[in-house]
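Example S7 (structure tokens).
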């Protein structure tokens, strides 16, 4: 039983003059109120109240403790009210982790605009393709692309996204268009190396099952933006996110292949640790990103 409930029950019994009246106010039984008082007295090791058929009477220690308990409850309620009032104040220091390329293009620039709305807020960004431990490393939130499975985190979808195989029209004119996953072995696949964080390869959906294809070619690296630029130059084909290439697809600079095997959801999500009260700085920034990302035409810029 928590101490707050014990203190509140003791004060209520003392003020109402009986377990029955206090129980009615708390919407519990008199037995429950009695157990709460017993628990408080046992923990403190003192008798706070004499109980008899003629009624309840505070002991000398009980009289002294009653005033202190009332003050403690008042202080607690004031602290909680202050915290609740502060939930809508965007201020303090917001620390955000995001994937490197995505963060450079779609998080940090928006952070600057967001800060103009809330000048009392300090923003810090860590742009890395490594998955960070938010709690241990002191982050308020992170942007993740793809599935979030950690039960200690809350995930909020910001925008839809897919991973697709793409290349320039000129590349496919020279080398042909892959028609099945096995054809990828005949193409120059521009992929992450072991340091790039995709050891399982490119993921696809085939016959209702998730499969991974080891893709390789004459160039690899550990930087997604470099891979993106190589694909745009026609040096090979890549497995890229639609957030990254939406504009190029619309302009015809890149085309996608093997779409029937694409994993349907590789969404952009905001994640933060489970907590009772979500700070306004986190809540408002998530809402701002979500609204911006879902503005028509945003990803085609």
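Recovered sequence:
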């Amino acid at each position: 039983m928590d101490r707050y409930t014990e203190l509140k029950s003791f004060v209520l019994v003392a003020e109402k003059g009986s377990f029955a009246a206090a129980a009615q106010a708390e919407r519990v039984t008199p037995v429950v109120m009695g157990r709460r008082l017993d628990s408080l007295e046992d923990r403190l090791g003192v008798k706070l109240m004499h109980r008899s058929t003629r009624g309840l009477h505070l002991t000398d220690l009980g009289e002294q403790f009653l005033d202190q308990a009332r003050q403690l409850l008042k202080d607690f309620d004031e602290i909680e009210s202050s915290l609740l009032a502060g939930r809508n104040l965007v201020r303090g220091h917001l620390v955000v982790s995001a994937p490197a390329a995505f963060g450079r293009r779609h998080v940090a620039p928006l952070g600057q605009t967001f800060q103009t709305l809330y000048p009392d807020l300090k923003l810090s960004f860590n742009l890395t393709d490594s998955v960070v431990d938010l709690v241990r490393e002191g982050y308020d939130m992170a942007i993740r692309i793809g599935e979030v499975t950690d039960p200690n985190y809350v995930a909020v979808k910001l925008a839809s996204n897919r991973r697709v195989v793409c290349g320039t029209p000129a590349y496919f004119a020279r080398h042909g268009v892959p028609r099945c996953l096995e054809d990828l072995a005949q193409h120059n696949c521009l992929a992450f190396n072991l340091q790039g964080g995709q050891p399982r390869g490119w993921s696809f959906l085939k016959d209702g099952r998730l499969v991974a294809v080891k893709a390789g070619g004459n160039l690899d690296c550990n930087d997604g933006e470099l891979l993106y630029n190589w694909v745009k130059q026609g040096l090979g084909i890549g497995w890229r996110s639609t957030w990254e290439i939406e504009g190029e697809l619309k302009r015809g600079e890149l085309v996608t292949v093997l779409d029937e095997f694409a994993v349907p959801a590789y969404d952009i999500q905001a994640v933060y640790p489970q907590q009772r009260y979500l700070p306004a700085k986190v809540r408002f920034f998530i809402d701002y990103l979500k609204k911006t990302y879902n503005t028509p035409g945003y990803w085609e810029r």
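Notes on this example. The longest helix spans residues 60-85.
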